[in-house]
Structures are given as C-alpha cells and as structure tokens.
Amino acid sequence: MGARAPGSPLPWRVRPRRAPVHLIPVSTAKNGVSGRSRKRILPDPVTEPPVTDPVYEARLYCNIPSVAERSMEGHAPHHFKLVSVHVLIRHGDRYPLYVIPKTKRPEIDCTLVANRKPYHPKLEAFVSHMSKGPGASFESPLHSLPLYPNHPLCEMGELTQTGVVQHLQNGQLLRDIYLKKHRLLPNDWSTEQLYLETTGKSRTLQSGLALLYGFLPDFDWKKIYFRHQPSALFCSGNCYCPVRNQYLEKEQRRQYLLRLKNSQLERTYGEMAKIVDVPTKQLRAANPIDSMLCHFCHNVSFPCTRNGCIDMEHFKVIKTHQIEDERERREKKLYLGYALLGAHPILNQTISRMQRAAAGRKEEIFTLYSAHDVTLSPVLSALGLTEARFPRFAARLIFELWQDREKPSEHSVRILYNGVDVTFHTSFCQDHHKRSLKPMCPLENLVRFVKRDMFTALGGTTNYHDACHREGF
Fold first, then answer.
1. Which GO CC terms are listed, alphabetically (predicted)?
2. Are 390 and 373 in contact (CB under 8 A)?
3. DSSP state of 28
4. Which band of pLDDT confidence, cut at 50, 70 and 90, is reported for residue 47?
C-alpha cells in the first residue's frame, strides 16, 4: 500500500531554487500566540541546513525523543471552546521489515527497561499496567496481539522502547493541552467519548496504547475498546476503488523511470550487492534502506562482510534519491490523484464526527487512529500540505474542532502536523486568513472540500463512487 517501497522515508520538501521553508513552529508573543504569527511557516536558520542534507533528513525521520517539544495544539482566542479532537498517528520507532541479504540483523533489544534510554517517567507503570492484560476485549483479531514489545532481540517490524517512549510523550503532551487546559474529557469520562481504531499490527496497537496511557488521567481497561481496521488506508467498507489503483500504478511507473535515470544510485546498489554477494536486483528487492535506517536511528554500525562494509556514503546516495523522488512526485501530481481517493474515506469519517459534535453530541469527542506512513502520507497530500515532510516515526496529524462562544452556531477547525499549525497551508483554507482575523478555518470549508472539492480536482465527478469508477482515465 503506497507508491514506494515499504518503509522508505521520503521527506517532503519545498520546490527547488527557493530558500528552505519547512513546517517549523514560530516564536510565540509574550501574551500568547498571535493569530498573525501563526499563519506563517518560517525557516529556522539555526537548525535548517542551507541545502538538502540526507543525514539531517534521516535524523528528523528517526524522531529520537527529546526532553521538550514545541507544540501549538490547543491555541485559540479565549472565547473559543474546544469541542472535539481527532488524532491520526504513525506508529513509533520499529525494527526493520526487511533484512539485508547475507548480513547479521541489527541487535536491538525490544524489552522495555525503565532505567535505559530513551526514558519516560511513565514507562515502568506502562509495562506494569500492560502486563496485567486487558480487562476488556478488543475487536477481533486485535485480542491476539501482545500489548507491549517484549523480545531481547526485536522481531521484524516490532515496536522498540524508543517507539513506546515517543508515544508516551505524545500522550503526555496532548494530556497537558487537551485535558488539563481545555478539559475536553470529564473526570468520569466514558467509553462512548473515545473512538479508537488501529490496524492489525502489534506496532500500531502498542503505539495507540502508549499514547492513551500518557493521555488519559486514569487508564481504565474497562473503558478502552480498540476497533480493528483491515486496510492501511482506513477505508472501512469503501476500499474498492479501481481509479485509485490506476493512479498508483502510474505513480509507481514514474518512480521506476526516475530510478533508471540515476546512474549514481545504480552504482551504489551494485557496490552494496558485491559486498553482500547477491545480484543487484535481489539487494534492491530487499529494500536495504529500511534496515539501514534502523542502524542509523539506533547508532548501530552498518553491516560488514569479508568483501567490505556498507557505509554512510551508500546511505546518503539512497536517501538523496528518495528526496529527489519526492520532489518529482509533487511536480507530476500522479500521487495527488491517488491521495485524494485514498484519503477520502478517513476524511469523510472525520467530518461526520465533527458535525455530530458541532450539533451537541458528546460521543466520540476524542478520536485516535493508530496507523502507518502509508496512511498519513496520502492524507497530508490530499489536504494540500505540500511542504510537510514524509511522516516520521510517531508523527501526529490532529484536527481540532472549536466553537465560538460569542456565536455558538459557528464552528471552526485547526489542522496541526507534529505540533505545527498548518491550517492555512491546506488547499481548502489557504486564502481564508486573508479575509478573517480568526486563527482557524470555518468547519464548512473542510466539509465542502471533502464532500465536493476533492472530486472536482479529480475531473468533475461529484461523489466518491463515481470518482473511483470513472471511465476513460
């Protein structure tokens, strides 16, 4: 699922020949965040390299937990009331899904140890709580999955301690904002006020549980119910979409042709194949960047054989090609067609929940989708967030719904990606701030985008079914 080899990070960057402009939070004013300052995405001269740096991009992708993170969730004028919050996350740091042929697997310990880095104050209590087992059942087949990682040598695709801590931190951050500051949930919150959904992978279930453990003031198993989503696109009963798959096939063809033109990339794969003594085609099929990223993120040396060592120069060449691929992908727009159809079902579910909350319903006011890079990536693209980087480990995309207390019938939304307010960088609201001083976007804009404008962009159809079955594409 997705228009690339699984596990390959493709950081999203700006157009060539422009000063680097990335999704970096801007400084807050002394008396809070001004609406004007929050409408801009500014370069950070301290941390942003002047040109594309594959090592810098890889570090961002790793998302090693830090003590503090700047975030802009929950910012609004005092007369606005937070009504509901909808969170879409990528799972945290994981062990590779692929093995570099004829090399030793990276030795990463997937047991959780409270006094080992990375550390979180709730880690030990999280392990203790999870080890008791759930007091309520999950939707099948989730009940058969382990609730936390627990192997001395990680299994393929298993969440690591870093991944657990990343989402404990996410949960703590959201708790401080949404519960302590805005009191989104009452102290006696109920199961009906949460909507929790995850794919059938242990890394997504465990990531969701870690976030909830950091988020909820009282993690009560009797109130936790995760639904199972069979599709990484979270399309539920609306997954059959032939035109979406045609867009994907064209996008994959574009990827293939770009790779053929990159002679340095081909030489690099050839060198690596000689080191591990396999045909170049077999090495490429093994998706070596997935395993190399694990070595990189965990500071483990790249593998060696008697023929030599895979090294940082090999890594840089592959990463640089991925960044170039992402640049061309944006320009050719084939992926955008795939993204609009791929993201529509989950966006449609989200606005339906927002509309119910705006009407006064108290159910499902906090939604959590625990998902993958191939879930977030099409949603980001569909929303028009062309400057957003490819989803890092433990990335979070949040939709906030607000009510104006001075005009109770009016509701607005804010969109945040990894703590950065990107509302006015979405295609449905990029011009709204020119007409309004409010630091958010009318709910009607998002509803109109999902119900109508997404299809207009695909050639004039008016609904999801017709767009998916359009003749003559």
1. Golgi membrane
2. yes
3. P
4. low
For strands 308-309 and 304-305, give the pairing: antiparallel
d(CA 290, CA 373): 13
Is 218 tagged catalytic? no
Residue 275: Cβ within 10 Å count:
23
The radius of gyration computed from the CA coordinates of the chain, to the nearest angstrom, equals 22
Reported as a single tens digit per residue, the pLDDT across 225-245 is: 999 999 999 998 899 999 999
pTM: 0.89
Encoding tokens for residue 337? 């067609």
In this structure, what token pair is assigned to residue 292?
Answer: 């190399």
CA neighbor of 412 nearest in space, from 259, 385, 404, 282: 404
Question: Strand, helix or coil at 80?
Answer: strand
Looking up tokens 């500014």, which residue turns up?
42
pLDDT in tens, 421-459: 999 999 999 887 777 777 899 999 999 999 999 999 888
Neighbours of 312 (CB within 10 A): 13
CA–CA separation, 198 vs 143, rounded Å? Answer: 12
Of 120, 373, 421, 433, the catalytic one is: 373
Query: Which two structure tokens, joined as six digits, stand for 24?
Result: 């970096």
Q: Read off the DSSP letter of residue 22.
A: -
pLDDT class for 69, splitting at 50, 70, 90?
confident
Lookup: tokens for 134: 């759930």
Which residue is catalytic, options 75, 91, 321, 425?
91
CB 222 within 8 A of CB 309: no
Helix boundaries (H) for 36-183: 54-62, 123-131, 161-174
Angle of helix 242-261 relative to helix 263-276, nearest 10 degrees, comes to: 80
- Could you confirm whether 91 is annotated as catalytic? yes
